[in-house]
User: Which sequence fits this backbone?
């Protein structure tokens, strides 16, 4: 069996690639396959002839996507278009990782797979367009929506926050953006199982429970026995560091995933494990 992981050098990709034998997996990165360049994608696919493709590569900076929508569009839409075309040509099964940011956040209970997406941000819009391309082109696919992923060497806020707090750096942090934190290790296990079963359709995966960013930060302070006053809570209305509109509440309902695969553990237990074993 041959597997391609696009974005294999990213936060999730690094965990996922470890789940496969080296001989089975091709870790695609910008160096060996720029997904926005069709000839580069075509070359990698014809050379590998993958049975399965995990399409993780994306322009993931939500705020920079507002500043540079053309780049977000090029990577997340044209890039995904290239992957979907080649996967369909070679009859590969595709797992496309998408986001809770496809929702507008107006619900007050967790979003299920059947809720209608209505993204607020450029990033969310381009990821939703990616979902449509994958479901439109590929005969065998699964779209996996996840949220607020944290893990080792991640460049996103959820991964960097524990390092900053551990170094006692003061942080201003929002209280009114709620979703479900997800450990990249758990997400990778979920993606691996989905791939093994060749599940087709749309699935949510995140750790169970939800919190706002302030609560996430407080949990980290508590774990390290740090003074919680390191965190200054603020409403998103007064927070000028982020420019993209984000859903106020975008927790994901994982009952379908739990029924088919395994019960995701709570975000607190997953975060504890991450802090204990992966943050030195
Ligand atoms: N992290 C989250 O909180 C989160 C939440 C929901 C959904 N997701 C989705 O999960 C997936 C994985 O996210 P992540 O956190 O692992 O992202 P990440 O750490 O930002 O990694 C993104 C990867 O995509 C690669 N990439 C970007 N542009 C590319 C291009 N033109 N050609 C080839 N590769 C390119 C990057 O390579 P370089 O290192 O060379 O730039 C990097 O390896 C993404 O599809 C994201 O939308 C993430």
Assistant:
């Amino acid at each position: 069996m041959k597997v391609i992981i696009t974005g294999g050098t990213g936060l999730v990709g690094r965990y996922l690639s470890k789940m496969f034998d080296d001989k089975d997996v091709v870790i695609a990165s910008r160096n060996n396959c720029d997904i926005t360049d069709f000839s580069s994608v075509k070359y990698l696919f014809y050379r590998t002839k993958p049975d399965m493709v995990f399409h993780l590569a994306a322009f993931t900076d939500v705020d920079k996507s507002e500043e540079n929508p053309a780049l977000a569009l090029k990577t997340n839409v044209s890039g995904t278009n290239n992957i979907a075309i080649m996967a369909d040509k070679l009859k590969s099964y595709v797992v496309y990782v998408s986001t809770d940011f496809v929702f507008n956040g107006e619900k007050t209970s967790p979003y299920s797979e059947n809720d209608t997406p209505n993204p607020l941000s450029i990033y969310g819009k381009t990821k939703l367009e990616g979902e449509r391309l994958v479901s439109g082109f590929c005969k065998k696919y699964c779209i996996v929506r996840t949220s607020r992923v944290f893990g080792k060497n991640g460049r996103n806020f959820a991964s960097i926050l524990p390092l900053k707090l551990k170094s006692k750096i003061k942080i201003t942090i929002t209280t009114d953006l709620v979703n479900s934190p997800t450990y990249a290790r758990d997400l990778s296990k979920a993606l691996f199982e989905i791939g093994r079963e060749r599940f087709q359709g749309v699935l949510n995966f995140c750790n169970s429970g939800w919190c706002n960013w302030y609560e996430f930060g407080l949990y980290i302070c508590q774990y390290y026995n740090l003074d919680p006053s390191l965190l200054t809570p603020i409403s998103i209305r007064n927070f000028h560091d982020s420019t993209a509109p984000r859903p106020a509440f975008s927790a994901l309902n994982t009952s379908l995933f739990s029924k088919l695969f395994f019960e995701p553990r709570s975000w607190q237990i997953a975060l504890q494990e991450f802090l204990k074993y992966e943050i030195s």
Q: What stands out?
A: The chain has a mean pLDDT of 97. The pocket of NAP is lined by residues 7, 9-13, 29-30, 33-36, 56-60, 75, 79, 97, 99, 127, 146-149, 154-156 (CB under 6 Å). The two ends are 36 Å apart (CA to CA).
